[in-house]
Fold Large ribosomal subunit protein bL35.
Amino acid sequence: MPKLKTKSGTKKRFKLTASGKVKRGQTGKRHGMIKRTNKQIRNKRGTTIMADADAARVIKNFMPYA
């Protein structure tokens, strides 16, 4: 049986931490910044850790060798 490929969109969007958690970028900063408060915009910087239930789905379906 051939090797499974990791989804190319998953490679670009997610990284695994050393402890096996899934790190992802923050959502909600593509457009419409004028209506958001400065605090909201500031708190959306950087990355965050994905929830366990969602992370399990990402790893199982899209990252076969993670």
Remarks:
- The mean pLDDT is 96.
- Strands lie at 14-16, 22-25, 47-49.
